Amino acid sequence: MMNLFGRAKQQPKSDTPQVLKNMRDQLNVLEKRQQYIEKKMLEEVNRARKLVKSNNRKGAILCLKRKRMLDKQAQQIMGAIMTIETQLMTIEGHTTNLLAMQSMRMATNTLRDLNNGM
User: What pLDDT does residue 15 have?
Assistant: First the structure.
């Protein structure tokens, strides 16, 4: 089918092993980022405790607000991690099913050729 302004764009065929590798790499980056955010959250809580002991309640409240923002980021990252893990499992499952179907198709063709040769 032609586009109004030329050829229809063809989407490049994805390379499944490369896609899986990229997704795993992205998963590792997200996990490292989450660990960093959790570390920063602990630092903010400890800083807030120190500020409360030194009677600086406003500073402590600001630290807790920063901790709350970091917590929201951590939740978003967890959601992204879960999405990527789900997609990884789905792609791996479909790849396995595809390989099984291809091997069954080859076996069927081989049996058909053997029966025709009889």
Answer: 83
